[in-house]
């Protein structure tokens, strides 16, 4: 119990009030206060007959007097209570009735649901005010009648939202699991469904308030709402309007009141919607953290010279400065297949997408150098060169094609638009590529829609499409993750064929170490937005990795031909905004040293010829070989640490030794 | 002597009517003994997910018998099915979708213990014991699912399945949405539970490597049929059916798909 008291239950999604929401709530609070006190303070004045009728605005009667000589300002203030009560009444009827109806329809089962939803659709298309007028006209007009009428007329909107949201939530696993557990339907609704749809419904409530305010005022204005001697704002408006040409003042009071209340409702609605929207949460602003400069990725200058693709000190960041990719450098040689492995959130896809200039908003990339061939990606590269020189294969073949267009048009589009190739020639080449990709019946496929192909065939067509323009670089982002294992093997072979036939360099992104090591020449391992190791596929296959993270990852991967139990890695990767100073893997690393918490390790060549970013790897004690050699490129410059610039590594080694002996 | 906890016999399932009728399961027979884990592998469309639904009672077969502890589920009425259902618990695939974000972990577990009136306060000790079984601290009960990682959530989902005290646990692709290191964590929990509780489990996965590490025996599905069902070691060492062989050969084992060319690794 004490534990619970000390550590309070995690809050639900935090509500972050926007200025609009605060303004709306303030105005609404003021109106409520007014509704509470006005009848006591100004009640008598508002009812007092015998004044001079039709007075214009004066210091005594700000908004003049009505035909019976009563003060319009006082009457407007007093009418706040009636008006708000009616609005709340109507909103309550709409919300309770609508949500109830929606829930009932949803609980009732598939057939009733179908009919009910149709019915609601019809009701929604019927204007609420019109419906209310009919109801009010049929029953005897009055405050209660109009409240009920407007309330009922707004029900369908709630009902529809409720059924839609409920259907959405009900499809989630936790609801079906609860069913399996034997949770009865009503409890299911109350505990699992309603709490998860409460937020949008709350927004709708505030919208309904505004709508009913307008509608109720309208009804009173038309004379079928509130009846004498009661009055609300709508009624006051109607009274004032009778003599508007001679005396406009009495109209102003109720008009201002209606607008103000309506505005408050609207602001609250918008504010709630914005405050509750999930993508508003998280994302703490954070200044640019420790800038560790170019030497980090330490690009090998000689390798970069002839490379088909180069990224040097690539940083992908959120608008608040959080670095999702933090200083990655890589180069891909002509005809080379380079793999990037890492777990979700490691930044591997973002790295690849930067090389294709396809980062989603609002991410931005910065790099000392970012190019494919001689196409500079840091500026504003030509779209047609991007389209023809970089081919992309995505994970999900079903979403990478437009479902409503035939394959033929989609396959030939890039060639025709960006390659300046004629229709017939483009077609011929597309068919040829489909053949090369082993798509069955290539001619016929051109006339088919994407959904008519199986997942494997679609992914082949995707590869064919990517290879059509003979790109310099093919980026394959988890190309086989959505595929069955037998199909995966074929698609991987296909990538190899394309590489061998046209000499296309490939950047293969995958979470699967086995996939990467069976296809690639060289593999980059990413962790928390950084490159931690670069090794040959042969080394990876032989489990000859140096970096502790790569080793842990290898140990966690179950093998189909071995009985060793996969070992989990304690903890979890840091959020990019909370990446620790020093080595990002330090909190989970078995070999961690004090220096790891302070200093970001650089990529340097290890005893086996791979490159690893780790303070411990390559130490004399460990490797038995000469101390780590610096991996080409400029020396490390740590702007934020006290380590002097210049030949860093030997000093580092000495520092570590000192620490070791100290222990 | 071992008890036969689950037995499927000649189960047929088809969807649709008339000419569009599609057979999803053909004459499927399976047996599962107490304390054993049966790995069910197959590719998408092989019918393994439908089979899972049949076993937990979400899909009713057109023909065949499903015996739980000898009791026939296929012929049972609504009420009996509801009762039998609790004896088989499902761990769903996606740990992010399988926990109600608005319910504390404690409440979620309490609901599994008592679906009618369960409250976290009433079952504090049981909940703590359940969490301990999946190596989680008792104070996890007071928190909401969003405070946990994918692996922890999946452990909570396992604890919830255990809360019912089921005879059989059906784990449907429970690790396929997880990262490799997290997958290892969940597999570790399942491994410990199998040893400590004599868990009886139907473990469904498309990943042969994972199945190998969890199962005592393996059944391979293809086209709605079970094509091979063997002891784990035998199926991996000497697969008999052609499809099993193909499946095993397709798993990337890290061996290069082609001979290295001269251009490799420019250093
Ligand atoms: S630098 Fe330190 S913490 Fe990081 S991987 Fe190497 S030993 Fe572990």
From TrEMBL, chain A:
The chain crosses the membrane at residues 21-42, 83-108, 129-153. It is found in: Cell membrane; Membrane. Gene3D superfamilies: MetI-like (1.10.3720.10), P-loop containing nucleotide triphosphate hydrolases (3.40.50.300). GO terms for cellular component: plasma membrane. InterPro entries: AAA+_ATPase, ABC_Ni/Peptide_Import, ABC_transporter-like_ATP-bd, ABC_transporter-like_CS, MetI-like, MetI-like_sf, Oligopep_ABC_C, P-loop_NTPase. Keywords: ATP-binding, Cell membrane, Membrane, Nucleotide-binding, Transmembrane, Transmembrane helix, Transport. Residues 625-636 have a biased composition (Low complexity). Its main location: membrane. Residues 309-553 form the ABC transporter domain. GO terms for molecular function: ATP binding; ATP hydrolysis activity. Residues 80-269 form the ABC transmembrane type-1 domain. Residues 559-580, 625-663 are annotated as: Disordered. One of its GO terms (biological process) is transmembrane transport. It comes from the Bacteria. Belongs to the binding-protein-dependent transport system permease family. This is Oligopeptide/dipeptide ABC transporter, ATP-binding protein, C-terminal domain-containing protein.
TrEMBL record, chain B:
It holds the Pfam family ABC_tran. GO terms for biological process: transmembrane transport. Keywords: ATP-binding, Nucleotide-binding, Transport. Residues 8-248 form the ABC transporter domain. It comes from the Bacteria. GO terms for molecular function: ATP binding; ATP hydrolysis activity. Belongs to the ABC transporter superfamily. This is ABC transporter. It comes from Streptomyces indicus. The lineage of its organism: Bacteria, Bacillati, Actinomycetota, Actinomycetes, Kitasatosporales.
């Amino acid at each position: 119990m004490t534990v619970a008291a000390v550590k309070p239950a995690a809050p639900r999604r935090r509500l972050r009030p926007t200025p609009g929401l605060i303004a709306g709530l303030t105005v609404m609070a003021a109106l409520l206060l007014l509704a509470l006190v006005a009848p006591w303070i100004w009640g008598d004045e508002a009812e007092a007959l015998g004044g001079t009728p039709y007075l214009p605005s004066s210091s005594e009667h700000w908004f003049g007097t009505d035909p019976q000589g009563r003060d319009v300002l006082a009457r407007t203030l007093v009418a706040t209570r009636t008006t708000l009560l009616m609005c709340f009444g109507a909103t309550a009827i709409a919300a309770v009735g609508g949500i109830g109806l929606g829930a009932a329809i949803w609980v009732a089962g598939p057939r009733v649901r179908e009919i009910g939803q149709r019915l609601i659709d019809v009701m929604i298309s019927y204007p609420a005010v019109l419906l209310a007028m009919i109801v009010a006209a049929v029953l005897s007009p009055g405050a209660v009648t109009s409240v009920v009428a407007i309330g009922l007329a707004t029900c369908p909107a709630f009902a529809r939202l409720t059924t839609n949201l409920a259907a959405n939530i009900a499809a989630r696993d936790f609801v079906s699991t609860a069913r399996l557990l034997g949770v009865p339907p009503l409890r299911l609704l109350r505990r699992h469904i309603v709490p998860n749809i409460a937020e949008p419904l709350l927004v709708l409530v505030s919208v309904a308030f505004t709508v009913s305010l307008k509608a109720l005022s309208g009804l009173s204005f038309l004379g079928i709402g509130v009846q004498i001697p009661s009055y609300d704002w709508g009624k006051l408006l109607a009274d004032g309007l009778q003599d508007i040409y001679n005396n406009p003042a009495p109209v102003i009071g109720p008009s201002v009141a209606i607008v103000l209340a309506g505005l408050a409702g609207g602001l609250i609605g918008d504010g709630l919607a914005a405050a509750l929207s999930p993508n508003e949460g998280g994302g703490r602003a954070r200044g640019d953290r420790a800038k560790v400069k170019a030497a980090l990725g330490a690009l090998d200058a000689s390798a970069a010279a002839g490379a088909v693709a180069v990224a040097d000190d690539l940083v992908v960041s959120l608008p608040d400065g959080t670095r999702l990719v933090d200083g990655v450098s890589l180069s891909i040689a002509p005809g080379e297949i380079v793999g990037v492995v890492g777990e979700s959130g490691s930044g591997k896809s973002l790295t690849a997408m930067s090389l294709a200039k396809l980062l989603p908003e609002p991410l931005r990339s910065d790099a000392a150098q970012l190019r494919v061939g001689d196409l500079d990606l840091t500026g504003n590269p030509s779209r047609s060169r991007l389209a023809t020189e970089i081919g992309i294969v995505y994970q999900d073949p079903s979403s990478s094609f437009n479902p409503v267009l035939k394959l033929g048009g989609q396959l030939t589009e890039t060639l025709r638009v960006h390659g300046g190739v004629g229709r017939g020639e483009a077609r011929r080449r597309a068919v040829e590529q489909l053949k090369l990709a082993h798509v069955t019946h290539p001619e016929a496929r051109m006339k088919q829609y994407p959904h008519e192909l199986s997942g494997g065939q679609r992914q082949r067509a995707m590869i064919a499409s990517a290879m059509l323009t003979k790109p310099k670089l093919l980026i394959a982002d988890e190309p086989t993750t959505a595929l069955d294992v037998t199909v995966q093997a074929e698609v991987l072979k296909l990538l190899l064929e394309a590489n061998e036939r046209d000499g296309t360099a490939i950047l293969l992104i995958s979470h699967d170490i086995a996939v990467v090591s069976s296809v690639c020449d060289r593999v980059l391992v990413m962790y928390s937005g950084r490159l931690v190791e670069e090794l040959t596929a042969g080394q990876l296959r032989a489990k000859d990795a140096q970096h502790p993270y790569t080793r842990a990852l290898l140990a966690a991967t179950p093998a189909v031909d071995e009985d060793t139990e996969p070992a989990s890695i304690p903890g979890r990767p840091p959020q990019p905004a909370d990446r620790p100073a020093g080595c990002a893997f330090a909190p989970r690393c078995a070999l961690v040293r004090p220096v790891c918490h302070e200093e970001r390790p650089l990529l340097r060549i290890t005893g086996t010829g791979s490159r690893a970013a780790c303070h411990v790897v390559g130490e004399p004690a460990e490797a038995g070989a000469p101390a780590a050699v610096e991996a080409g490129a400029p020396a490390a410059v740590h702007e934020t640490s006290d380590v002097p610039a210049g030949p860093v590594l030997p000093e580092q080694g000495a520092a570590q030794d000192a620490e070791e002996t100290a222990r | 002597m071992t008890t036969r906890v689950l037995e499927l016999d000649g189960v047929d399932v088809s969807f649709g009517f008339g000419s569009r009728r599609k057979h999803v399961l053909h004459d499927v027979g399976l047996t599962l003994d107490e304390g054993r884990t049966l790995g069910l592998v197959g590719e998408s469309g092989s019918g393994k997910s439908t089979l899972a639904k049949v076993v937990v009672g979400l899909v009713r077969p057109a023909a065949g018998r499903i015996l739980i502890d000898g009791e026939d589920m296929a012929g049972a009425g609504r009420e009996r099915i509801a009762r039998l259902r609790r004896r088989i618990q499902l761990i769903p695939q996606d740990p992010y979708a399988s926990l109600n974000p608005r319910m504390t972990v404690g409440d979620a577990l309490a609901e599994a213990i008592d679906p009618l009136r369960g409250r976290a306060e009433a079952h504090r000790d049981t909940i703590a014991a359940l969490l301990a079984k999946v190596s989680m601290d008792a104070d996890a009960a007071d928190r909401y699912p969003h405070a946990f990682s994918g692996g922890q959530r999946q452990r909570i989902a396992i604890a919830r399945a255990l809360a019912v005290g089921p005879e059989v646990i059906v784990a449907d692709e429970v690790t396929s949405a997880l990262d490799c290191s997290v997958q290892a964590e969940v597999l570790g929990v399942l491994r410990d539970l199998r040893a400590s509780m004599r868990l009886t489990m139907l473990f469904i996965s498309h990943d042969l490597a994972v199945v190998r590490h969890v199962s005592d025996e393996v059944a391979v599905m293809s086209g709605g049929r079970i094509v091979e069902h063997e002891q784990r070691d035998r199926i991996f060492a000497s697969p008999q059916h052609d499809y099993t062989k193909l499946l095993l050969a397709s798993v990337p084992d890290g061996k290069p798909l082609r001979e290295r060319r001269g251009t490799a690794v420019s250093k």
